[in-house]
């Protein structure tokens, strides 16, 4: 699509001079963890609903998340950022959340998607503001990537709404609980 970010290999020649290391380390670490967790959520949903009518839609979103994770894997190497030590926990927690929400049916899976993707796109917006305040020219490539991924997450959010997420059992309770979990995951993954 027009304006889409190229998912080509990230240059290993990233100039680290003048980069605000604590900010960049935190952003790349948490975004990598988030995309890793999103992959595990969609894996859990596919394990339950993969052969259902909503399976192809979940697969399409998962494929985008796989591309996001691949890009953040590259950025971690290019910027020399270590991953969060919580990845083994996010591996299990993400799959359980995906499969658990899917056990509520397609509406439950879509409610999970809406909650997670709304949280992540809001988080990406916060990162965009931070990088714009730091130096938009210095962080141009990273800003472009985060903006594109934020737009993809908003698209997933909208797909969830189009597929009756709000009709899931106890939607508002489910959404609030998942979003609290996302905020906790973001807080911890930025720091640990």
Automatic annotation (TrEMBL):
A Pfam family assignment: COQ7
Phylogenetic classification of the source organism: Eukaryota, Metazoa, Chordata, Craniata, Vertebrata
Membrane spanning residue stretches: none
Source superkingdom: Eukaryota
Pathway: Cofactor biosynthesis; ubiquinone biosynthesis
Biological source species: Charadrius vociferus (Killdeer)
One Gene Ontology term, aspect cellular component: nucleus
Biological processes, Gene Ontology terms: determination of adult lifespan; regulation of gene expression; regulation of reactive oxygen species metabolic process; ubiquinone biosynthetic process
InterPro entries: Ferritin-like_SF, Ubq_synth_Coq7
GO MF terms, alphabetically ordered: 3-demethoxyubiquinol 3-hydroxylase activity; metal ion binding
Assigned keywords, A-Z: Iron, Membrane, Metal-binding, Monooxygenase, Oxidoreductase, Ubiquinone, Ubiquinone biosynthesis
Name of the featured protein: Ubiquinone biosynthesis protein COQ7
